[in-house]
Amino acid sequence: MIKINVRNVVVGGTVGMGVPIDVLSRLSGAMYDPTEFPGVRFRLNGCTVIIFGTGKVVVVGSITGEDAFDAINMLVSKLAGSNIPTGVIKRRVCNVVCTASIRASLDLGRVSRIIPRSMYDPEHFPGITIRRQDPKCTVLLFASGNLVCVGADSVQNASDAVNQLYDELCRGKQL
Question: Tell me, what CATH number does 131's domain have?
Fold first, then answer.
């Protein structure tokens, strides 16, 4: 079993209703420059929390979904403390980014021929792009055996995708 290292968990959500950007931008810790970006940023719980006028929220920079969810809760508390109403809070993990190593050098030309839904064009990118269907995510695999998995909706799904790929490589006698 390959051990994955979670690098980033992205959580998306909504605080239920639109919020006035001008009021948000005056809250303590708010970072807002409308000429650069339409959202207000906060650093909460070690994460970057971005809230838009529509009430949509994005949390990046977390290593766990729980930390990102806690950051949203902290934002909601900050809004409540400033008498900004929030509706039903919805949130979900949108993207897990992780890295891993197979600990073997690979012939990417051969690997790309045995792994379904893989694309290898060494003139444009030094790795293989593998689009996994179940679980749905994308794996970037390099000749060094290092890989990056993006787009999974949970850490478990990212781990499953990496380990399924490892099993396919073993069955195809690439390791």
Answer: 3.30.310.10
